[in-house]
Amino acid sequence: MLDKDSWKEKEFSFFSHRKCEYFPCHDTEHPEDFNCLFCYCPLYALKDRCGGNFQYTKSGVKDCSGCSLPHKRKNYEYIMDKFKEIQEITKLGTAENK
User: Can you give the pTM of this predicted structure?
Assistant: First the structure.
């Protein structure tokens, strides 16, 4: 876990790729705070425990097109704290991996 606020204003916690042909890939009123660091959300595998604004399609696929959680500058710490859960579901022998 990160020390509280130690990541703020650090280069490693924010990246904005304004030249990307998809920028911004989600609606935002604050493009200056749109974080592209987690372009592909690392929380996707957490299913309904990710904390984002998602829904499931009729065929059961997770649709995150309405979610901007990983793209907000302020959510870096939240995402990093969730890696403990990601680590748990990727361990060999867990119920989800059988």
Answer: 0.72
